[in-house]
Specification:
single chain, Metallo-beta-lactamase, Chain A, eight-stranded mixed sheet, six-stranded mixed sheet
């Protein structure tokens, strides 16, 4: 799996036979392998997650003597949250577009896509393809904003933990479908309906360090790490890692404050999983199996 950080919550994942493009609205794309199909995901309508520029990636009939496009993909499909108005899809792309709502399962060309309800807008995506699990949270996060009413904060915690419970159950189901010989994992069961009792938001980073972290989980998880949450910036990732788990975590939604990754890794709570967190330093940075590669960008 090859991952390119584009900007904010935008990432390009390259697999053996396809590309997955998440929440791209800004940032330079690498050149595509023309033999692979591109699947474009948009988690919700917010301008930092969706732009109509994605439809420019669809193959078009070149005009005579026109300059060739740089390595276009062999085909493109768009998988969009249903809060994105259909009128924003150009007529020529409508047949290539599927709208999804929360708690939906989509089967497309050997790939299973499951969606979950965001704690903000739209959906989160869990994708099973080629015996790999990829999770992109969109704006699903533990948005624990200081100053909000206590009942609002309790509802936020309950809603986030409920979705994590559903995701963890689906992750366990996926791994049970794979041979234990091929994918030995140790993921503890999650109570039906969420994990509210395990993670009261008042628990300190030091106190959270005593909670277990499952091995395995998703192969790659793209999770918000928003500096605007101040001291609560780490809650979403910490809850995810202790409930669902991931082999590799790509922080996102950082508003260009990439140094916040080091702040997370320095917390006592992150000690059990800090080595799974990818240190992103710049747009266009490319990662494979945990090592940074030099990736070309096209202008």
């Amino acid at each position: 799996m090859k991952v390119t950080y584009l900007h904010h919550s935008g990432f390009l994942v390259e697999l053996a036979d396809r590309y997955l493009l998440f929440d791209w609205f800004e940032g330079q794309l690498p050149a595509f392998d023309g033999g692979k199909t591109l699947y474009v995901f948009a988690s919700h309508v917010h301008g930092d997650h969706f732009s109509q520029k994605i439809f420019g990636l669809a193959p078009r009939q070149a005009a005579p003597h026109a300059a060739p496009q740089p390595s276009p993909p062999s085909g493109v499909f768009f998988i969009l949250s249903d809060d994105i108005p259909p009128r924003r899809v150009p007529p020529e792309c409508k047949e290539l577009t599927t709208f999804v709502k929360p708690r939906q399962t989509l089967e497309i060309n050997g790939m299973t896509v499951k969606t979950y309800r965001s704690t903000d807008e739209g959906v989160a995506f869990l994708i099973a393809v080629s015996h790999q699990l990829i999770f992109h949270a969109g704006d699903l996060n533990h948005w624990y904003w200081e100053g909000e009413p206590e009942d609002w904060l309790r509802r936020m915690t309950t809603d986030y933990h409920h979705e994590l419970g559903l995701i963890a159950q689906d992750v366990m189901s996926f791994h049970r479908s794979i041979s234990e010989k091929d994918r030995p994992l140790d993921i503890p069961p999650v109570p039906s309906g969420g994990t509210d009792a395990g993670f009261p938001p008042q628990v300190s980073p030091a106190g959270r360090a005593t909670a277990p972290v499952p091995n395995g989980g998703a192969d790659a998880a793209f999770l918000p790490l928003d500096p605007r949450l101040e001291d609560n910036f780490y809650l979403g990732i910490d809850d995810f890692m202790r409930t669902v788990g991931a082999k590799t975590v790509f922080p996102m939604h950082m508003w260009d404050d990439l140094a916040i990754i080091d702040r997370l890794k320095a917390l006592p709570a992150a000690a059990p999983y800090k080595d799974r967190i990818v240190p992103i330093h710049a747009r266009g940075e490319t990662f494979m199996t945990g090592s940074v590669m030099t990736g070309s960008v096209m202008t």
